[in-house]
Amino acid sequence: xxxxxxxxxxxxxxxxxxxxxxxxxxxxxxxxxxxxxxxxxxxxxxxxxxxxxxxxxxxxxxxxxxxxxxxxxxxxxxxxxxxxxxxxxxxxxxxxxxxxxxxxxxxxxxxxxxxxxxxxxxxxxxxxxxxxxxxxxxxxxxxxxxxxxxxxxxxxxxxxxxxxxxxxxxxxxxxxxxxxxxxxxxxxxxxxxxxxxxxxxxxxxxxxxxxxxxxxxxxxxxxxxxxxxxxxxxxxxxxxxxxxxxxxxxxxxxxxxxxxxxxxxxxxxxxxxxxxxxxxxxxxxxxxxxxxxxxxxxxxxxxxxxxxxxxxxxxxxxxxxxxxxxxxxxxxxxxxxxxxxxxxxxxxxxxxxxxxxxxxxxxxxxxxxxxxxxxxxxxxxxxxxxxxxxxxxxxxxxxxxxxxxxxxxxxxxxxxxxxxxxxxxxxxxxxxxxxxxxxxxxxxxxxxxxxxxxxxxxxxxxxxx
Length: 465
Fold this sequence. Notes:
Layout: H1 16-22, H2 25-28, H3 32-48, H4 54-72, H5 85-97, H6 110-145, E1 151-156, E2 159-165, H7 166-191, E3 193-194, H8 210-217, E4 221-222, H9 226-231, H10 234-260, E5 268-269, H11 288-311, H12 325-346, E6 351-352, H13 354-361, H14 368-377, H15 382-399, H16 408-412, H17 422-425, H18 428-433, H19 443-464
Parallel strand pairs: 3-4
Antiparallel strand pairs: 1-2, 5-6
């Protein structure tokens, strides 16, 4: 194990406690493949500039590939004294290829090297999350397609409001996950910027072709300012923001599954394989998977706030504080991945209690708005109709009857515009199927939304082939 890369200026050895405190190898070792990928590209760029010979470039590349094999075979040794994955790889490269390894760091710094590694990592991670979201959307559409005739109460303020199709309710989450996908796709544009060649902060005097390096690594842009390039963590914060919104959506769905599985609602039955029991109460079937998704949302929110707090007071350009960013980023990626995956596994296995959902949609005066809309069709201004129906609901509550259970004579006490066809008008099926506007809960509209989603999913799958 060689001495510190920066040891030339120092007369004392670094204290062991400082080595342990400042080491990040336990966190950033997962970047090894990206560090090697970036180093190979940098090696080729140095060869193109004549800084290393073709023979030296081949030797360096072979050594880097050997290190990758060692890491993946788990024979590679890690030491806190070597601080990070970049230093580990450079140190081992020197052992394999000799003094020529010292040329590899020409025209770069660990400052631009680390941000390159993270950008390469996050680019792949985001692409993987987008694919996973696509799988979840496909599951949502599949479940919704099975329930285009299942009626349930829609809620506002967690109070029964109007009847909707269960498929319509589920497709709302399809829309949320679509926006999550769009945000992540947009985020990729800011991730996919090549910083290598910015060096420590001021750029490099060596005649390297940064666009050539970018092409080798598949970057669409090259960073325009060397100080910004090494100091920028916006792309990580933007990802954490998108991840937090995605986790918020997953948490909302998890909350509904938790509530719906309770005996008070009894809308769904969770599969035994995705529930847990109580250590003391034998009858319990707990929605722990959904509860953990809901809880883990706070964890990702915390990562976002920690990244923002980490960066908010840092002067340009690089500061060692930024070493703390990777643990936060990795945790956000891992947590989001796990929650999308487990939700996609859980949803198809849920059993919906159709009879209970239908019954809940038929009680609680959910047809009050439709009665008001009926009066509007008879020429009554909506605000007047709203007041009139409010009086009818009050009468029905006192009579302990639903609106559709009142007699025509009872209804006509409040308005002579009400006629016999009102009882068909107030049927749940008609209430749903009248809402035919784009985005409405009518069976026709919901089936159209599902077909559109299926076409989009099919096109996305075809584009990936």
